[in-house]
Amino acid sequence: MHVIEFTNITKTYDMGVAQQVQALQGITLAIDKNEYVAIMGPSGSGKSTLMNIIGCLDTPTSGQYLFNGVNVSEMDDNNLARIRNKEIGFVFQTFNLLARSDALHNVELPLIYAGISATERRDRARKTLEHVQLGDRAHHKPNELSGGQRQRVAVARALVTQPSIILADEPTGNLDSRTGEEIMGLFEELHSQGNTIILVTHEADIAEHAHRIIRLRDGKVETDVRVPPEKRKTYAMKKAS
Amino acid sequence: MHFWTEVKEGLLISFRAIRTNKIRSVLTTLGIVIGIVSVTLMATAIEGVNRAFDKSAAAFGTDVMYVEKWPWVSNEDWTTFRNRREFKMEYASQLDRQATLLSAVAPVMNTRRILKYNNNQMEMALISGTTSEFISASGNTQLDGRFFSDEESDGGRPVCVIGAVVAENLFPSEDPIGKTIRVAGFPYTVLGVFEKQGGLFGEFTSDTRVFIPIHSFISNFGGRRYIYIQARSKSLPLLEEAKIEVEGIMRKIRQVQPGVPSDFSINQQELLTQTFGPISLVISGIGLFITGLSLFVGGIGIMNIMFVSVTERTKEIGIRKAIGAIRWTNLLLLLLEAAALCLIGGTIGLGIAFPLSLIVDRILPTAMPLSVVFIAIAISLVVGVVSGFLPAYRAAKMDPVEALRYE
């Protein structure tokens, strides 16, 4: 069974009277457990739309979307929210942490919505923060952390519910290249631990870390290639050079 | 439990939001504070007026009739009453003899004179001449000492019974009983002191009056005066029948021809309550409405600030939605904030209103009714929830994609 299975997904936006924009024009693809996929494409290619649909933030106009075998294309808002909470970990370009809450509380937040008890929540959030090497920054607010640290808090927040996929939208877009590489190293580590990672980016440099690259153009899949191991970029390799 | 975890998280966020926007929260809450203060104070004042009225009305005696030339309340032209024949003192004894449903009948005459005891004096005190039956024919019988006896009454002895305020004025540090006071120079020995009644109709309670035997009153101060008769029914259930009997006897005494309307009035405490009741209702209604408006304005302030709060936190709501907050969770969050603001406002309002109500108490004996406290808290909660609902609903149905994109 695939984790994600798209069958002929389309998305059409109404832009005023009798004017429609077809952002996705029939996408069919499947992503398996423990894959590391990069979705690439120039702006306007529909990659944000695709990401929103994969992340259950939006629903397709037509087509079928099976998530772990469950049809989510026609779910209502509240059920989609539950799927997002339990199955999807988001990492955004702008981090999207709650500015007024400290790192620990930010990481705890998905567990609150999942209805986990306070002690278990605190425990899991702390462990996840340690996992991304931020155990000593638990009580810092986002504005007291560096960009790279903020993104690692966001990664911890994405990880804490042990989701089926981690969906990262331009995760290095707001970071300098060195910290960006660090974050990519973190993703590699997570992948090697068995996580499924979907990376949305327009930077070829970043996409080269993935094991499979899907290119979009004008709302359609242009190419879908697996990257042979020798062509993959790794954080360790970069460090050695 | 899931629900409580979210309520707790919501409360936490609410209080943090209130703390971070201190000035804004204070200003918004001020509206609710003012609203609650004015509503509770108004309710307290109304309670005070009602209490004072009930107390005053009780002083007239629920089962006592006041038979006299003038009615207490009337819509008719006063000239119809002016032309009525004056009352005579004999009416009292005639009425007493003939009536079967009355327990006591007493004539009363009033005048104003100066009172003196040693160096203490009281200007223009109300002096009432009456008989020994007065004590049984009036509403208040709480007396320290005794009223004058039949013999003292019939013999016009120089004795008196004084009201509580008179006693306070003339005898600030002495027991008045057995002392002799001077009423416009005439000596009268104090037999008893009435207990304090208080109330709105100060002159009609016993507080500021001096009661003396009517014969002594006439010989010292003259008898050509307005006189009325206090008649008490044997029991409260018999009051209506007693009233009919009194009317019949009085018509006979005053020789009113059949078919001609009675040329006298039988006044009762009920008349006052009936007249005052609707007026008090209207006044309380208007008062509460006007003060309620200020609470309403406070509520609008809260709603306004909640809208600002929603807009300000669009991004945050988007993030929360992305990581799994379901609709009503977001709703709850903002409702809690609005409710918390109002509840704080309401509590502060009560905190301010309570000492103020003690000041009101000095002018008009009252107490903040407990029900008002609960109602005020409930109202502030309702205002919070109602004014928070629209903004919260808007936040709840926000599209997460749009909300996340908001900067």
Your description of this structure?
The complex is a heterodimer of chains A (241) and B (407). Chain A is of the alpha/beta class and 241 residues long. Chain A has a single domain (4-240), classed as Rossmann fold (3-Layer(aba) Sandwich). Chain A is 35% helix and 26% strand. Chain A has eight helices and ten strands. Chain A has helices spanning 47-54, 77-87, 103-114, 118-131, 147-159, 177-192, 204-207, 235-240; strands at residues 4-14, 20-31, 36-40, 62-67, 70-71, 88-91, 165-169, 196-200, 212-217, 220-226. In chain A, helix 3 crosses helix 4 (118-131) and helix 3 (103-114) runs parallel beside helix 5 (147-159). The model of chain A has no long low-confidence stretch (mean pLDDT 90). Chain B has two domains: 2-56 and 274-405, no CATH class; 64-267, no CATH class. Chain B has helices at 2-20, 22-59, 79-82, 90-98, 150-154, 164-170, 214-221, 239-253, 269-312, 314-322, 327-363, 370-396, 400-405, and strands at 64-68, 102-117, 120-130, 143-145, 159-162, 180-183, 186-194, 209-213, 227-233, 265-267. Chain B has a six-stranded mixed β-barrel with strand order 2-3-8-5-7-6. In chain B, a hairpin with a 2-residue loop joins strand 2 and strand 3 (120-130). The longest helix of chain B is centred in the C-terminal third of the chain and has 44 residues, at 269-312. The mean pLDDT of chain B is 85. Chains A and B meet through helix 2 and helix 3 of A and helix 1, helix 10 and helix 13 of B.
